[in-house]
Amino acid sequence: MLTLPDGRTLLAAGDRPPALSRDLLAGTLRGLVAAGEAPEDALELAAGLLGGTGTDPVGPALCCVHDPVTGTLFWGRTGGHPAPLLRRDGDPLPLDLGGPEERLLPGDLLLLHTLSTAGPAAPDPGRTTSTGVLLALSPSLGPDLDAGACADRAAEALAESAEDGQRGAAQVVALRAGTGSGPAGHG
After folding, report:
1. Do 25 and 18 meet the contact criterion of CB atoms below 8 Å apart?
2. DSSP class per residue in 24-77
3. What is the CB neighbour count within 10 angstroms for residue 5?
4. pLDDT tens across 90-102, in order?
């Protein structure tokens, strides 16, 4: 979670390769988005800048830019990374059902998460396991919880559903729109 010079917030989650510095990747994405690149284009350009040849240097990743003035969220993803999950008026809405732009309303909860390799069966075959876990958790992420508490609960649920070797791998970024509490992360 980084604040851009124009006041927008950059949120990202992903399974970055161990050889790639988190700070280098975050700084590269921040610079590209601040220069006007859309999130999906920024991910693609970052992969080219940081990788050269060989495996994808960015890995499965999700990049979002939230404009608090307009409430608009722009997002992009690579490598089959799960789409953001939006909780609005008590209903969980995976954003892969729409386009890469969504207007967030006050009180909306946005969750970005890393992939989970194990866990309960997803609600339908098109969903990743981690999304299925968060869809089931959604009723407990009510408006009384701030972004930090939601990120903590989501990370705990993903860790509980993971295989023993993956328990510490869950990463969650949460944003509660229009509340002034700002984004929070866990993992």
Report:
1. no
2. HHHHHHHHHHHTT--HHHHHHHHHHHHHSSSS-SS-SEEEEEEETTTTEEEEEE
3. 7
4. 888 888 866 789 9
Cβ burial 54-64 (10 Å sphere, 16+ → b, else e): eeebbbbbbbb
CA distance 47 to 122: 30
String of b and e for 149-167 (b: at least 16 CB within 10 Å)?
bbbbbbbebbbebbeeebe
DSSP 96-141: GGS-SEEEPPTT-EEEEE---SS-SPPSSTTS-HHHHHHHHHGGG-
- 95 residue type, one letter: L
Q: How far is CA 78 from the centre of its chain?
A: 12
In which residue are the tokens 């989650």 written? 13
pLDDT tens figures, 166-177 = 555 678 889 898
22, containing H or E segment: helix 22-34
pTM, entire model: 0.79
